[in-house]
Each structure stands twice: as structure tokens, then as C-alpha cells.
Amino acid sequence: MNRLFWIVMAVIGTGLVLLMLNDSAGRTFGMDNNDFSRVIWLGALGTLIGASLLRSGRPMGDMARNLGVWAAIVLVLIAGYQYRYELQDVASRVSAGLVPGSPLALGVDNGHATVTLDKADSGHFEARILVNGTPVRAVVDTGATSTVLTSDDALAAGFNPAVLNFTIPVSTANGVARAAVVRTDQVAIGGIVRKDMPVMVAAPGMLGQSLLGMNFIGSLSGFDVRGDRMILRD
């Protein structure tokens, strides 16, 4: 085994030297340098695994089954990596069905995070946002100038409504409510994050559900509605 180890190390070392010498040419023995490097390390890995199995003294049938299991595991891992975005999309769709307001899909468009929301049974778009790390279910309201939290959601996010001064009038679907201004550490939805953002806190009993308003939506590069889906772009 010691002799085999040094042979493998010598092959790897020789391969590295050849890659350095042929770096400017880009090819080694007629192969692209990237392909040649893969052949070196895969060959070395296969040699070590094969030698270990042979030295174990186990029957060839058992070794073949073990190799088949490991090959299947490697293939599953490779497939999972190649289809990671599709799997993430499936997971997002499942969570959107189980947890109201969860993003239907998360993605990246031209280097910017995107979030796709599904219309709720109420007919409005709802979003499960994070305020200071606390999940808050909010209605997306493009008619609201500011994001407004209910007193209960504000309390969960670390703000004490009992010490706030509710002097600012806020128009809601139920009429005019009184609210106070607080500053959050972070407001996030999916991969879209805004730090140090001011939000309103409605007086207790004045608002039935938190609102994601234009101070957050207006900070986006864009958003659009396609049927029952809303796409937010960072």
C-alpha cells in the first residue's frame, strides 16, 4: 500500500508539473488542461478506492455491489447539483401551499434577486416577510405609502406598542388609523433585504393585518403582475 501511495503521488506530481508547463498552451497530450486535470485526480481516486477494496479481502460480488452503491450516490449528488434551481423551485412551491404568503419561487435575474408571489384566496397578494428576523404575514399594498405592522406583529418583531406614541394618521381599507414610526434593523422577503428601514406600527386594534407598502416596493428595481402572480425584482 505504501508503494502504491507513492506511485499515485508521483503521478499527481507529474501531472501538476505538466499542467504548469503547458499552462500557456492550454493543452496537455492533446487534451484541454481542465480535462487532463480531471483525468489525473479521477484516476488517482479510482486507483486508491480500487486498491482499498482489493486489500479488504472481500468477495468480488460484495465489492461490485459496494461500488454500485457509491456510483449511485455520486450520480444522485451530481444530479442534485445540476438541478438545484429546479429543486429549489419545487420546494418553494410546496412551502407556498403549506405556509400562506411564502414565496412561490425565488430566483436571480441579471444578478438581482427575484421573488414570485401567488395571489391568496382573499384576492390580494400576500407576502411572508421577515422583520428583524421575525416572520410577518403582510398584504402587498401599493396604495400604502409605508409598510405598516399590526401591534401584535410589531411586538413579535421586538417593538413595544405600549411605549409608542401613535400620532400619525394612516389610511387603511377600514378607514383612518393612528400609527407610530419605528426603525427596523432589517426587512426581508426571500433574497431581497432592506436594512435600517422605517416602518409604521398601527395602534392596537386599528389594523387587522400588516401591510407591505411602497417604501419597500418603491425601493425595488421593478415589479409586475402576471395573472395570479406578482414578481418582485431587487
Your description of this structure?
The chain contains six helices and 15 strands. The longest helix has 23 residues, at 33-55. The protein has helices at 2-21, 33-55, 60-82, 84-98, 151-156, 214-217; strands spanning 27-28, 31-32, 105-109, 112-118, 126-131, 134-140, 148-149, 168-172, 175-183, 186-189, 192-195, 198-202, 210-212, 222-226, 229-233. The radius of gyration is 29 Å and the shape is elongated. Helices cover 39% and strands 30% of the residues.
The count of strands amounts to 15
Query: What string gives the helices and strands in order?
Result: HEEHHHEEEEEHEEEEEEHEE
Residue windows where pLDDT falls under 50 for at least 5 positions: none
Q: Considering DSSP H and I runs of 4 or more, what fraction of the residues is helical?
A: 25-40%
The general outline is elongated
Name the structural class: alpha+beta
Largest sheet: 5 strands, mixed
Beta-strand fraction estimate: 25-35%
Distance between the termini: 56 Å
Rg result: 29 Å
Enumerate the strands of the largest sheet in spatial order, edge to edge or round the barrel.
Answer: 11-10-5-6-13
| Number of helices, counting only DSSP H or I runs of 4 residues or more | 6
How confident is the prediction overall: mean pLDDT? Answer: 77
Short description:
It contains six helices and 15 strands.
